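Thread: sanity check for a docking pose with guanosine-5'-triphosphate

Original post by kr_44:
Hi all, I'm comparing my docking run against an independent structure prediction. Below are the sequence and the ligand SMILES. Could someone generate the full complex and paste the structure tokens? I mainly care about where the ligand ends up relative to the chain.
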Amino acid sequence: MMRTSSIRSQEDPLSLALRPPVTETDAEKHMRLQQESEARRISEQIDEDLRQEREKLKKSKGDVKLLLLGQAESGKSTLQKQFQLMYSPASLESERMSWRTVVYFNVVRSIRQILSTLESWDDVDDGSDAHSTIDRLEDTEDLPSKRRSSPASSQIGVALSPPSPTNVQAPGSPIKSGHGPSIADLRRRLLPLTNTEPQLADRLSGGVTVAGSKKGEVFVRSGWQARTKEKALSVIDADPLVDDVATMLDQSQDEIKALWEHPTVKSLIANRKIKLDEWSEFFLNDITRIAGRNYVPITDDILHARIQTMGVAEHIFDVDIHGKTVTWHLFDVGGARGQRHSWVPYFDDANAIIFVSPISAFDQYLEEDPRTNRIDDSLQLFTQICSNPLLKRVHLVLFLNKTDILKKKLDSGLSVSKYILSYGDRANEYESVVQYFRAHFLQVHRRNNENRRVLYTHLTSVVDTKATQFGTLFSEDTYNLLHSFESLNNLSVCCL
Ligand SMILES: Nc1nc2c(ncn2[C@@H]2O[C@H](COP(=O)(O)OP(=O)(O)OP(=O)(O)O)[C@@H](O)[C@H]2O)c(=O)[nH]1
Ligand SMILES: [Mg+2]
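Reply from moderator J.T.:
Ran it for you. Here is the predicted complex with guanosine-5'-triphosphate included:
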């Protein structure tokens, strides 16, 4: 008697199709079994990948997605470094040597900027009265007509132009050079070093230039550290270009110091005829350490090192909260105008935004649009963020940053109302200035706050490591807010 099941299997067209041919040789059988085994392995791998994907998705539901937004140079990447320092110190440690290339690039660029501004100096006798140089610089300084902020788009009463150079404080005393080497001499001796600037820029950016960026600006994508080959402290890994620059710096220490301390340079910087990047002073003041043999960047160097972010860089930290680990995804974005389009895809599932605004920048204009005052741009950008429908439910924290630079500028007598006309005759003092700018940001928020969300505002200096241990950088309520993002369920306003 035939068993029904075997009749079925014999008649099943699929089984028939899969059955090896009766004429199958041993070699063919071996090959077939191998192929079947490989197919099984691939199928199991796909199942495992799907399982892991499901697991990740389930787990990531409790993750926190935090965007760092703000204009270029506002301090977003510096803030990200502070997070890294706090939650992933080992990763910062592993990339410490990569920052050597950035610091060297910042130093070389600063020296080149000083020498370029003094370009006409070579033509005159170094012993002559330097007023002539100042006069020439005044003639060539960016004139107001080049930097007109459009009144229609201005959110704050910014000056239609920076104040006239003649309004700038006159030199305190006549400049006498002629002691020590001449600037022409220093330029000649520092030429091999300044010539390395484009190569260092290339090394950092991987040869990528960004449309509309200034000559010599370097944009980097996340993972740039791998390109500098200096991840470890090991000499074997060292980059020959960076080593050459290190040797040149070491040998040029005296010239760099002489240039930096040259009375003409000092005076022109004091009178804002030479406009250096904000971080130049930090590095040049400490050139003996930085140009020394076996230089290893200290944490303060890493926080002050400047390199522009391109696109969006994700940084992941596991944060321990009351014994439970929450994964934070920090998205650090490029803030220049040409980079802002890349932010939008990250708006959809963001939980919170830290908007960083450099309130020291009242006298500065955008690199990418020299007609726009930086504070004005920051307010416009904040308006766009507050009113964006995709971000309606996202928690907002505002960092009014670079308060240390603001204090220095006010102490040096720089007048806010020269640049921000609407500031009028208010006191040119820190408290008053901060209060004025904060009021403008709060007003933007109030006008774009259908969902009645809370805005946490903080005065910060994110290069300050002492303040950053979530003591003064984040006040207690922001600290609690940031730590309350344990899961999407916790994101109701009532938990704030
Ligand atoms: N003194 C001082 N310097 C700061 C502060 N915050 C940032 N900086 C410096 O300003 C420069 C620019 O900071 P970044 O963090 O690179 O700026 P960013 O917002 O990431 O800029 P993009 O990547 O171009 O959008 C760096 O040299 C920082 O060290 C601050 O509070 N005080
Ligand atoms: Mg950045």
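The pocket of magnesium ion (ligand 2) is lined by residues 76-77, 309, 332 (CB under 6 Å). Hope that helps with the comparison, let us know if your pose agrees.
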